[in-house]
């Protein structure tokens, strides 16, 4: 952070910019006809202080040693964008007419492709979790930058914020400072009436130091930030007392302008009161004339290439989770401290990350029952040049945190999720723990890739492959042990020569009477059915679809030549593999008999085999169904 002498030179300039930025905020939201002007006007002085004195400039935005500023309440984008424009990061003329406009980079909530923006936000309550990820990256890389998170007061009511506070305290993130815009208003009225929160007491209870300042006094803000940075032991929360709509009398302390733009007449009144240039009419006349805008290219650190070791061949029935744990431990031994991090949420033994924790304890982050902050923190860490993994049960790291994964997708993170305990295969834990919808959810996330191994050997290859890939991947593993898939001659199918690539489809068995597409634990069930059908003279071709979100359409159309296609899965049939292949058949106008076999309702508690039999998903039920289908 820049020193006191620099601050003293800048304070009068900041006061001038404060008025100008408030004018920008009102202009751009009025021109757009929507936005959040009043909250932006309460936050602007915080942004000006941070971006003036933190170690971040238009010239060093790609420097790994720069400070990181995370904005959690992304609806204050007018304030952040105006601040960045007036400090030389972006063009003010483009901003004023391009805010919330198609083809413009200046969306309604902040986007990280804008120079100076580190994390796209809008979903309140996630910024502190992201800040923890950036602060962790500084620790792991030993780059010693500081991370600042600017938040609203209303979002302090979210449980994820509490999870993040405790995470920061546990892992000693003394390089993390939170500044809370405490303007006492949210869209439905006063925060104290909508949902009372003891902000100061909550931070203190979780081990943070708390300072309270006037959020419109640059000297007070600067002094508080300097004090926070000078403490090498604690994370700090600075509660900045601000005024909603500060600077314009008819907007101050009114919830109306939280999410409503001023009319042109109101805008002109506000500009006059602020004493800034009124060029609104000219801007309104020309707002549609600009058709193209500056394209920004963000340079994120590349995901590190890691040593992945030598593939292992398994001959015996094995837990895929155990295979993951073995590969992870091997990788931990082979790679340096600053390349890898693993997160757990109180399931280390079940998801097999304990060996890694023993080998690299400073790279293992046990977050307890805090899945929401873990999803965001791990995602933020993953875009900072560190291979980041999070292992958990599928109901927790897919179902429970869908919104956090969606925001990770928007931020183009590089998170590697190991989702275990999927489908009825989970067995006696019952319906609350049967993750039966993960494919359907992940289909909605444009940048996520999903891989489902069929046996221990394919699990080994997939893990070693995925850990050196860029982007968000989910590796889906069963709870139960899986037998080794073998070819017709009894040899290991996924042998030493097998190489996994994303989208690859494996032909497990030949057959011309019907074609079965399956995946994961159901491949072995299908093989048992294949053997029985063969004795009855029925040839069922079996394909293992390990990448269900990326299927070769040609294989589907070729399969239709048999006149019979079946999908078979331990997942909700209409949203999983069956839904995907059914869509391909329809879109390609393929004529064939087609049936989806899968989960139709929540299951009960028992071992996986009994559950499969009860719900018609065991190998005998599959064989009987195929016979009936071919008789039609």
From TrEMBL:
Its EC number is 2.2.1.1. Residues 318-484 form the Transketolase-like pyrimidine-binding domain. Keywords: Magnesium, Metal-binding, Thiamine pyrophosphate, Transferase. It comes from the Bacteria. One of its GO terms (biological process) is glyceraldehyde-3-phosphate metabolic process. It holds the Pfam family Transketolase_N. Homodimer. This is Transketolase.
């Amino acid at each position: 952070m820049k020193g006191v002498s620099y601050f003293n030179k800048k304070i009068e300039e900041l006061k001038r910019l404060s008025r100008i930025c408030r004018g920008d905020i009102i202009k751009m939201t009025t021109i757009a006809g929507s936005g959040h002007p009043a909250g932006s006007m309460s936050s602007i002085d915080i942004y000006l202080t941070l971006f003036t004195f933190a170690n971040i400039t238009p010239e060093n935005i790609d420097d790994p040693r720069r400070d990181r500023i995370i904005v959690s309440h992304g609806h204050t984008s007018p304030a952040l964008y105006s601040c960045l424009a007036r400090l030389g990061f972006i063009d003010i003329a483009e901003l004023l007419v391009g805010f919330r406009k198609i083809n413009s980079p200046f969306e309604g909530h902040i986007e990280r492709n804008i120079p100076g923006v580190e994390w796209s936000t809008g979903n309140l309550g996630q910024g502190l979790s992201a800040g923890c990820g950036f602060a962790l990256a500084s620790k792991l890389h030993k780059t010693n930058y500081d991370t600042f998170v600017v938040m609203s007061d209303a979002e302090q009511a979210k449980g994820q914020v509490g999870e993040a506070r405790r995470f920061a305290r546990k892992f000693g993130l003394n390089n993390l400072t939170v500044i809370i815009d405490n303007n006492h208003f949210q869209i439905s009225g006063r925060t104290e009436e909508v949902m009372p929160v003891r902000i100061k007491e909550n931070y203190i209870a979780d081990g943070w130091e708390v300072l309270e300042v006037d959020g419109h006094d640059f000297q007070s803000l600067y002094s508080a930030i300097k004090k926070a940075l000078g403490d090498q032991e604690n994370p700090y929360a600075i509660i900045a007392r601000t005024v909603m709509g500060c600077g314009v009398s008819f907007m101050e302390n009114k919830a109306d302008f939280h999410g409503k733009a001023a009319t042109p007449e109101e805008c002109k009144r506000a500009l006059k009161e602020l004493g800034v240039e009124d060029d609104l009419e000219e801007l309104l006349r020309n707002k549609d004339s600009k058709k193209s805008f500056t394209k920004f290219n963000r340079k994120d650190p590349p995901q590190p290439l890691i040593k992945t070791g030598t593939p292992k061949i398994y001959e015996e029935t094995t837990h895929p989770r155990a295979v993951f744990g073995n590969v992870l431990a091997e990788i931990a031994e082979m790679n340096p401290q600053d390349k890898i991090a693993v997160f757990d949420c109180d399931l280390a033994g079940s998801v097999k990350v304990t060996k890694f924790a023993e080998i690299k304890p400073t790279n293992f982050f046990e977050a307890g029952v805090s899945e929401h902050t873990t999803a965001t923190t791990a995602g933020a860490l993953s875009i900072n040049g560190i291979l980041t993994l999070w292992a958990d049960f599928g109901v927790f790291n897919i179902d429970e945190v869908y919104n956090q994964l969606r925001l990770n997708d928007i931020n183009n993170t590089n998170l590697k999720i190991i989702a275990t305990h999927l489908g009825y295969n989970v067995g006696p834990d019952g319906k609350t723990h049967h993750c039966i919808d993960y494919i359907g959810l992940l289909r909605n996330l444009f940048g996520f890739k999903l891989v489902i191994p069929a046996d221990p050997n394919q699990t080994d290859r997939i893990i070693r492959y995925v850990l050196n890939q860029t982007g968000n991947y989910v590796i889906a593993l069963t709870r139960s042990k899986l037998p080794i898939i073998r070819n017709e001659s009894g040899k290991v199918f996924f042998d030493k020569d097998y190489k996994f690539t994303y989208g690859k489809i494996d032909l497990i068995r030949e057959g011309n009477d019907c074609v079965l597409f399956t995946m994961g634990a159901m491949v072995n069930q299908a093989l048992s059915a294949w053997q029985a059908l063969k004795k009855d003279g029925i040839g069922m071709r079996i394909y293992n679809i390990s990448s269900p979100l990326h299927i070769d359409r040609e294989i589907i159309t070729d399969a239709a030549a048999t006149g019979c296609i079946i999908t078979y899965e331990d997942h909700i049939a209409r949203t999983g593999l069956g839904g995907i292949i059914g869509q391909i058949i329809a879109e390609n106008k393929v004529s064939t008999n087609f049936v989806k076999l899968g989960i139709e309702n929540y299951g009960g508690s028992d071992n996986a085999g009994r559950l499969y039999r009860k719900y018609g998903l065991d190998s005998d039920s599959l064989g009987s169904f195929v016979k009936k289908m071919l008789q039609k």
